[in-house]
Amino acid sequence: MKFPAATIAVIVLVLAFAHWLKLDYFYFASYTILQFIVLATAWNILGGYCGYVNFGSAAFFALGAYSAVFMDKFYPLPVLALMVIGAVVSGIVGLGMGYLTLRLRGAFFAIATLALAVVLQTLVVNWDYVGGSRGAYIVSPETIGIAGIQVSYIEYLFALMLVLAAIALTTARTIERSQLGFGLGAIRDDEIAAEAAGVPTLRLKLIATTLSGALMGMAGAPFPYYIGYLQPSSAFGLEYTVNSIAMPMIGGTTGWIGPLVGSILLGSLQQIAIITISSAVNLLIVGLLLVGFVIIAPNGLTGLAQKYVRLWKQL
Amino acid sequence: MTPLLHLDNVSKRFYGFVALDGIDLDVYPGERLGLIGPNGSGKSTLVNCICGTLQNEGGTVQFDGKPLDGLTAHERTHRGLARSFQLPRPFHSMTLADNLRIPLLYTVRARLGPLHSTGDLDARCHELLDMFGLAKKAKQLPGDLTQVEMRKLELARAMAAEPKLLIADESMAGLSHSEINDILALLLRLNERGIGVIMIEHIMSAVMKFSQRLAVLVSGKKVADGNPEDVVHDPEVVRAYLGQ
Questions:
Q1: pLDDT-based confidence at B121, cuts 50/70/90?
Q2: Which in A79, A276, B56, B63 has the greatest CB count within 10 A?
């Protein structure tokens, strides 16, 4: 049996086992890890492939979440439709942010994206319709029927996030092996040389900001239904920004597999820390690992592996 | 004959500093032009204004009979202008073959349409790498190259865009005598294919061997333009290089 088929078979078996034993916490924790796979992969399209560090991941995530809250009040729709709306809203904001800020480089671009998060959070805090600073309650059903099978709502959200994670990873993998991926890589390495080689750098960066924003917004849309009560401090939480950056950095930023590895590793560690130590220790773990990896493996785990493979081949 | 590149009164300032002051220059199809001048004379600024890395504030730049003003650098590359950089700027995370694949994908495809299969692109990459003596290192990263190989990669990448005019900005700086001859032979071979070449260089022996015409910039102004033998004996050029 080939590796992907074996992986899928193992995942299906584990899920069936968790469903049979009614292990809701398994789905609850796994949802978070999948959510970070999407966020980290989305961040990596702009930050890893293109070299533009985005400190505003939480803003795009929150836009998706608050789009869902808005629609829940205005015209309730299925979560799947809300994910599409979240993607459109965040994608448009990503495009706008890109257009306004992509002439900035390095730290200036990073600061501009951070400013976007602050501005959006201030707007949401003062927008009463979506709950303002007091937050908004979202009531979701206990169970939902899918193709005649009754599953718990958290299982449904987990399935949606699993599909979204697959879409995000497929998108990243496709980009990486495409003309777009080559162009983004050239921008990351040297933007002036890329322009001189004929790469339309601004257009490519706008595609990257739009795609990245849209995926983050999609990840945010089911969040109010997952958490049940959404307030600005949770949607715009520091952990989304920090993890979106740290996970690809630890896994490796040059390929689609890096954010996946980083998210699974860091996400699992955080979930274990939450139930064994305390929820407050999360960011401490991220910080320590990030410092360690910057020193030991600046190109992440995949970069480290590639280095050893290259050395092995040279022997 | 209609010039391939026509500069009319091109000016550029950096705040109070006048980097280019009303430059007029014509380059004809297939011509070999040497462009010299002391450090800080505005040679690289002129290249940047021609190639769109910088926008000139005054005057016009025309290429192939059409104005380039307002076009971005990549649009100018698509029109047939290519350059190498004074300090090599390779795509350091990509192999040599992939370094060449970028202009092939983005410039040749943009100009000629999606005619290239992956096989065609690979063949074109290897043809270029072979021509520049880099075929054996096709799968290596630029970090593994020697200085002269790095210079060759710069030129090969510029050539991958299939230009009508190549601007080689100090492609021989820091090279040994034999390496200079190597690069010189390459540039002459490219010119034999009908590609116009502007050579910006400090190494006068190479400039004199290469150039059919020589232009001299001093403090942002063109002080001489003509036959290389005449230009190097021009009193103003001698004064600029040797002082009063």
A1: confident
A2: B56
**pTM, full prediction:** 0.90
| Domain covering A24-314 in this structure, CATH number | 1.10.3470
- Confirm whether the ipTM is greater than 0.85: yes
User: What are the extents of the domains in chain A?
Assistant: 24-314
Which is higher by pLDDT, B182 or B121?
B182
Q: Report how far residue B185's alpha carbon sits from residue A8's, in angstroms, rounded to the nearest whole number.
A: 58
Cross-chain Cβ contact B106/A200 below 8 Å:
yes
Q: Which residues is A144 bridged to in the sheet?
A: A151
Q: How far apart are CA A162 and CA A35, in angstroms?
A: 8
Residues A121-145 have a mean pLDDT of: 91
Is A311's Cβ below 8 Å from some Cβ in B?
no
Cβ–Cβ of A186/B91 closer than 8 Å? yes
**B73's tokens:** 């650098």
Question: Are the CB atoms for B89 and B157 separated by under 8 Å?
Answer: no
In chain A, which residue's Cα lies nearest the Cα of B103? Answer: A197
Torsion of CA A148, A152, A153, A154, to 10 degrees: -130
Give the distance from residue B69's alpha carbon to the nearest chain A alpha carbon, in angstroms: 16
Tokens of A168: 């995000």
Compute the half-sphere exposure of residue B213: CA atoms within 13 Å on the CB side of its CA: 16
